[in-house]
Amino acid sequence: MSESLDAFRQEARAWIQESLPEELKSGPRRGAPKEALDRWFQALTGKGWLTPDWPTEYGGGGLDRKQTQVVKQELKKARAPVPPASAFGTRMLGPTLLEFGTEEQKLEFLPQISRHEVQWCQGYSEPGAGSDLASLQTRAVREGDEYVITGQKIWTTGADKADWIFCLVRTDPDAAKHDGISFVLFPMHQPGVKVSPLTLIDGNADFSQVFFDGARAKVAHLIGPENGGWTVAKRLLQHERTTDGGSEGGITGAMKETFVDLVKREVGLRDGVLADATLRQRTAAQEMEANALRLTMRRAGEEARAGQSTRDIGSLGKYRWANMVKAEQDLAMQALGAQGLGWEGPGFEAVELQRTKAWLTTRSDSIWGGTNEVQLNVIAKRVLEIPE
Ligand SMILES: Cc1cc2nc3c(=O)[nH]c(=O)nc-3n(C[C@H](O)[C@H](O)[C@H](O)COP(=O)(O)OP(=O)(O)OC[C@H]3O[C@@H](n4cnc5c(N)ncnc54)[C@H](O)[C@@H]3O)c2cc1C
Questions:
Q1: Distance CA 313, CA 303 (A)
Q2: I need a labelling partner for 290 at 20 to 30 A (CA). Which of 245, 322, 329, 357 fits?
């Protein structure tokens, strides 16, 4: 590593240590005081480090690729939280706007995203259009400078808290199904938008059904060409499926205690190693898998930046990552034994209840952003180039 990058790492580490409130440095993150979280998020976004690689004129940190990697690594090492609903803006819409947005659109939306001032949700799936997304039926009819939108979305994460939606709509019902779709942005708080939350297996109601009946989107908020939204939509999915070498962490990333800490705590050590031989081997294998995935995705990222083809490599990462986090939570449940069977009430520690819910939540990691079967189809077609 170059000396200047090493110095940058020291600086980044020192800034994180100084800015991360004490309350967030220990204990389970869920239930952390809101005031401390707000203070940290303000510091993080003020520095532009929620989106470290975006240009400063769009609210980013203006860092180069290597510095960005350092910031991400140091934030991860400190297990510093990011705003829970930021991924829709920072990981998905932001990079898509950087590529497809006009200058006006970039200046209007990107700074708000980098400061996490606006919560976004993703209006892709419909009751008859999940894996077969291009079958979507939500209509948008142009009326002057606006589109009038009618239809239904489903499985819309965070819709009940979102300020804005990026939404796929059908603007030409007579065109072939991939050719009549547009990608538009519009506010959720307006007449003609109804949100109806659905409760999940882990007890949370993160999902909603969303009904549009005469909702309005400005034509100025159309991203890419009218009827040319499929290309934009696919690119956003590539961003969604990129797990950043597993570093997104999903639900496990939301917890202060690492998986290995949990196994050590529950099973105990004998002669300096985990007391249960089977769990020891499975834990080691799990950690090796996580490291292999992290390195593979880092290599894929380097190759992509060097201009070598890594088309849809995100699907490969998402597929392996989904299997990995599910296996990790299964192992955590094995280590917890009966203590992993709690829902609420006495007899269970908060961290144990948190793990049980995390285990349930991770069942969905092989579904969102395209199911594992769909990722395998993409890998076969676009990575391995196997003919249909
Ligand atoms: C936690 C979570 C969050 C989500 N958040 C959002 C969100 O914010 N916004 C949004 O728009 N959507 C969201 N979704 C929806 C998600 O994208 C869809 O659930 C997913 O694309 C699968 O679609 P489906 O549920 O309609 O299943 P279906 O498409 O009906 O699939 C059912 C089964 O058939 C299999 N299958 C379907 N087609 C094929 C094929 N061609 N080859 C092989 N197998 C196939 C699937 O793999 C699956 O096992 C979320 C889902 C989850 C679980």
A1: 11
A2: 357
Q: Residue 311: name the closest of 225, 233, 366, 380 by CA.
A: 380
Whether 250 is in the pocket of ligand 1, judged by its Cβ within 6 Å, is: no
Q: How far apart are CA 196 and CA 108, in angstroms?
A: 29
Determine the 3-state secondary structure of 13 from DSSP.
Answer: helix
Look up residue 365 and give its two tokens. 């990691």
Query: DSSP state, 228?
Result: B
Q: Counting atoms of ligand 1 from 1, which one is nearest the CA of 372?
A: 47
Q: Crossing angle for the helix pair 3-19 and 65-77, nearest 10 degrees? A: 40
* Average pLDDT taken over every residue of the chain: 90
Could you read off the pLDDT of 332-342 as tens digits, one per residue?
999 999 999 99
Tens of pLDDT, residue by residue over 58-81, are 999 999 988 998 999 899 889 898
Coil, strand or helix at 84: coil
Q: Degrees (nearest 5) of the Cα angle 352, 357, 359?
A: 95
Considering the entire predicted model, what is its pTM? Answer: 0.91
Distance CA 49, CA 252 (A): 21
Round to whole Å and give the CA distance between 51 and 96: 13
Residue located via tokens 């597993």: 246
From 240, 257, 266, 352, active-site residue = 240
Alpha-carbon span 150 to 211, nearest angstrom = 8
Interatomic CA distance for residues 343 and 384, integer angstroms: 43
Q: Is 328 annotated as catalytic? A: no
